[in-house]
Amino acid sequence: MNDHRAPRIPSHRLLNRRNFLAATGLAAAGAAWAATGGGKALATPVPASGTGFAVPLDTVPHTRTWMAWPDSTAIWGRKLAGVQANIALIARTIAKYEPVTMCANSAGVSQARSACGSAVTVIGSIPVDDCWMRDSGPVFRTDGAGGLDAVDLNFNGWGNKQTHAKDSLVAERIAAEVGVRLTTADFVGEGGAVETDGNGTLIATKSSLVNKNRNPGMTTAQIETAMCDAFGASKVIWFNGVTGRDITDDHVDATSRFLAAGDGLVQMPLATDTDAWSKDARQQYQILSTSTDADGTPIAVTKLQGPDYSRIRSSDVNFVAAYANYYVCNGAVISAQFGDTRADAAAKAALQRLFPGRTVEQLNIDSLGAGGGGIHCVTQQQPRP
Questions:
Q1: Residue 103 catalytic?
Q2: Could you say which residues form the signal peptide (predicted)?
Q3: What is the DSSP string of 63-120?
């Protein structure tokens, strides 16, 4: 569950991303896997600093998109069918522009293939707990000279809030499937918790990463160093974020994104919104628009207006209506629409201006939004070397 929250969600919302499973079940599953000889033998716990590898901006050409097929009624209950339909829709849409590989449990391969269609490659060799590939999957890096590797961010179920015995192994198993070297990061985090401009600058919320449920005993400076080593960056711009209101502790990628080096985007709430998420979004805008990037260049920030929650289709108090949680693929931007027709149209027009030459596709992913996430949350790009 990569994501999160978005502006304009009631301030009383708690732990919105999915039902949490008992920690004892998680521990038992992990112990059982370890007993079979499992481990991270392919990974090397060496910082990336000085290797020449860095995570590129997501606008670079991709080899493929990685996704995960959810099949757990323990996590999703009666919402599962709707979430699966959304995942299939996203996969089919991206597959019009670039290859998509869907990881599924062996028992779910047939269902996933039927739902996603022949354009999507479904594999049963990488089992999953849930659909949030942005967080469980590897973060791929390139070196500018034809090299590709991957980083494992040590996914721990967003601070052990959800079972992740399978998802904690997805990063290394995808790296092995691709045939690239895997580096283990020196901090615990998720792909949705960190945004990069591909040129040395990162943005993140302290609520998510400087948190004892991920990185106990580590200082902000130590976590920052580990992040820069993993992503091939040199500067972190921190937002305070929102702690304990959703399962991610406020991932950055539902509110703030990088468009390019020195160029950011923040989804803004309505002027009348006063909840914690709206205050968080305004603070992110204020901080990012008054910051410089790793090269010392002032960052220009575009405001992306969020919807009016009183006009969207969903009445779920946990709903995440994040236009900013879009996914960039080869030749397209895959975004969401929520039923506030005026705001939907304005967001599509804004994304079209920001990504000239790419087709903007807007999808109804209301089931996924009610689960606390969006399109960026369930996708992970593999850039071309």
A1: no
A2: 1-34
A3: EEEEEE----HHHHGGGHHHHHHHHHHHHHHHTTTS-EEEE--GGGHHHHHHHH-TTE
**What is the CB neighbour count within 10 angstroms for residue 15?**
18
Determine, yes or no, domain membership for 349.
Answer: yes
How many CB atoms lie under 10 A from the CB of residue 359? 13
> What pTM was estimated for this model as a whole?
0.90
Spatial distance between the Cα atoms of 217 and 220, rounded to a whole number of angstroms? 10
| Span 105-151, pLDDT tens digits | 999 999 999 999 999 999 999 999 999 999 999 999 999 999 999 99
- Cα–Cα–Cα angle for 16, 20, 23, nearest 5°? 145
What's the CATH number where 159 sits? 3.75.10.10
Q: Which domain holds residue 268?
A: 53-383
Residue tagged active-site, from 116, 228, 329, 377: 377
| C-alpha torsion angle, residues 85, 90, 96, 100 (rounded to 10) | -100
Give pLDDT tens digits for 336-368.
999 999 999 999 999 999 999 999 999 999 999
Contact 193, 154 (CB under 8 A): no
Total count of domains within the chain: 1
Distance, first Cα to last Cα, the chain: 27
